Amino acid sequence: MRLFRNAKFWYKGSFDNQIKAILCDQGKIVELYDAIPEAQPNIEQIDLKGNFVYPGFIDTHTHSFEGGLYSLMIDLSSATNLQDVFDLIANGVEGKGKFIFAWNFDETKIKETRFPTRAEINSIVKDKNLVIRRVDGHSCMVNSYAYYNICQTIPNFHSNDEVFRGLENDIAVHWFHNNLDEELILRSYHAASDIALQGGFSTIHTMVGDANMSIGHYSVIKERLDEFDVDFILYPQSFNIDQALAVGAKRIGGCILADGSIGSYTAAMYEPYYSKPIRGTLYQTDAFWREFITRAHQNNLQVAVHCIGDRAIDQINKVYMALANSDYKDLRHQLIHCEVTDDALVNQIKASAAVPVMQPMFDYLWGGDSGFYSKTLGLERSRIMNRFATFMSRGIRVTGSSDWYVTSLDIRNSLNAVINHHNPSERLSPAQAIEIYTENAAWLSHDENCRGKIAIGYDADFSILNYDPAHEVDDPKIVAIIKNQKIVYINDKA
C-alpha cells in the first residue's frame, strides 16, 4: 500500500484543504484522510512536497503513432524560409532509414509562403522516400523517389499537383506508415508514451489505421498495451466495421474524414472562405455516412468522425440526431474538432447528444481578430469557432484534446489556451478546464466510474503539477505522473 501526503488534492471541483492524504492499494484509491495517519510498517508514505495533485489528465484525441514517429524524425517548425527547410532536412536525414518524415511545415510562416517544389527537395534527398507534412496533416508533398514507389504499389495513384490534398494526401502518408517495420512502430509508441507522461497525461486516446479500410497495427499494439506506462485507448481509425468488431473494439473512427482542414482550404463550409471563392470539400455523401454510422451504431460501436467546417459538422450530426430519435443508445458518438458552429448548429448538437472533442490549442495558435481564422474565414465566422463555454453552458459535454502531433501534447498549454481563449465569451473557468481533461474525458470512454476523479474506488492515477491554473506562476511544471499508484514519471528539474 502507498500513502500520498503533503499535497493539495483536487477534489469535487476544487483543491480541498480537508484532504491531507490518500491511501492506495492494488492500483485503487481506498481511503481519503483529513489528517495524515501515523506511519505503519506495511504502508509506504510518499511526500509530494506541497505540490498540486489532479486526477490523471486524459487527452481524448491524439495521433500517438505519428507523434511518436515524428519525434524521431525532422521537425520543420523552426523554419523561417525555404533554405531553412532544406537545411533542416539535409542535416536530419542521417540515420533515419529509408522513410524520412519532415513534419510541422507551415507555408504561412515562411518568407516564400509556399511549399518547396519537388525538384528542390529532389536535390536534397534522392534515394530515400521523403514526405513533407503540413502542420495540420491535411497537405503533404513527396520527392520523386517516393512518388515513383507510391505509383508502383498503389494502382491508379496519380496527381497533377505536387502538393497532395484530400484523399491524395491520405493515400500518400499512409503508404509511408504502412511500409514501416514493427520495430520502428513500437519505438514510436514508446516515444509517444514518454512524451505523454512528460506532458502531464496518464491516459491518451489514440487513432490507429489508415482512415480508409485498414486498422493497421491495431492488434500489434493492443497485445502490448501493458508495455507502456501511459494508458492508450485505441481507436480503429477505419471504415472497416467488420475488422473493428473482429478485434473486439468498442469504438470506430477518429480522423475518418467528413472534410479536411481550414489551412488546406478543404474544411467544408456553408459560406465561401473569406480569402478564396470556395467552400471546401465534403469527402463523403450523406448516404455514405448514414449507412456507415447506422451500421456501427447497430453494432454498439461508438463512432468518432473528423468534422471541422459547419457543413461537415451538420452532415455528421444529422445522422447522430436521427439515431438519437429512432434508436437511442448511450454510445457517446463524437464530433472530432467541431470548430465552426453557429447557435442553430449548437442547438442541433445538443439535440443529438453528440460529444464535441475539441482542441484548445487551435484557438491559441490560429484564433483572435487578427489571427489565421479571421484572415481565412472572416472576422464574424472566427467568433463562432471553438465554442467551449457556449457548449458547456448548454449542457453539452465537451472533452479536451491536443490532436497531437498537430499541437503539443502538454496539459499546461491546453489549460492555458482554454482559460485564455481569444474570445472572452468562450473561455472556461480553471475548474471547467480541468473538468474537460478529467471527468468529461473519462466519461467519453465510459470510464466515469473508475477514472477522472479523486474518489474512493477510483484508479490511483494522478497528474502532479507545481501550480493551480487559477493562479499564474512564473515557471509552471509537471512534477510527476502516478499510474495505478506507481510513480511512472518524475521531472528531475521540478
What can you tell me about this protein's structure?
With 494 residues, the protein is an alpha/beta fold. The protein folds into three domains: 2-56 and 456-490, Urease, subunit C, domain 1; 65-178, Diaminopimelate Epimerase, Chain A, domain 1, CATH 3.10.310; 258-444, TIM Barrel, CATH 3.20.20.140. Helix content is 32%, strand content 22%. The strands form five sheets. A six-stranded mixed sheet has the order 3-2-7-21-22-23, with helices on one face. It has a five-stranded mixed sheet with strand order 9-10-11-12-13, with helices on both faces. α12 crosses α16 (411-419). The radius of gyration is 23 Å and the shape is globular. 50% of the residues are buried.
User: What's the domain count?
Assistant: 3
Give the class from helix and strand content and strand pairing: alpha/beta
Question: What share of residues is helical?
Answer: 25-40%
CATH architecture of the largest domain: Alpha-Beta Barrel
- Rg estimate, integer Å: 23 Å
Q: State which percent range the strand residues make up.
A: 15-25%
Using the coordinates above, name the CATH class of the largest domain. Answer: Alpha Beta
CATH topology of the largest domain: TIM Barrel
Strand order of the largest sheet: 3-2-7-21-22-23
Straight-line distance between termini: 25 Å
> What is the count of β-strands?
23
Largest sheet: 6 strands, mixed
